[in-house]
Structure formats: structure tokens, C-alpha cells
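Input (structure):
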């Protein structure tokens, strides 16, 4: 008996997962943005 076949449905909420994914991508974008801003400020 395969233990993974007993309950194939994931208990995670899709809304929570999408919010996590959006939040992580937003944080990543902000980090890249602020790195670019600091480089441009230092360079000027």
C-alpha cells in the first residue's frame, strides 16, 4: 500500500499559497529595485 495514495487531496489552501507566492515575488522585486536604487545613488 502506497502511503501517498491514501489522501491525494492537499490540505493547503490555494488562496494562502497564492498570497505566499505573490508576497515572495513582491519582496524579491523590491530587493532588486532597492539594490538598483542604491547603486545609482552611489554612482551619481
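Output (sequence):
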Amino acid at each position: 500500500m502506497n502511503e501517498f495514495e491514501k489522501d491525494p487531496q492537499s490540505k493547503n489552501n490555494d488562496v494562502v499559497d497564492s498570497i505566499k507566492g505573490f508576497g515572495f515575488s513582491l519582496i524579491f522585486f523590491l530587493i532588486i529595485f532597492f539594490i538598483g536604487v542604491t547603486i545609482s545613488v552611489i554612482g551619481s
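Notes: The CA atoms of residues 15 and 21 lie 10 Å apart. The mean pLDDT is 88.
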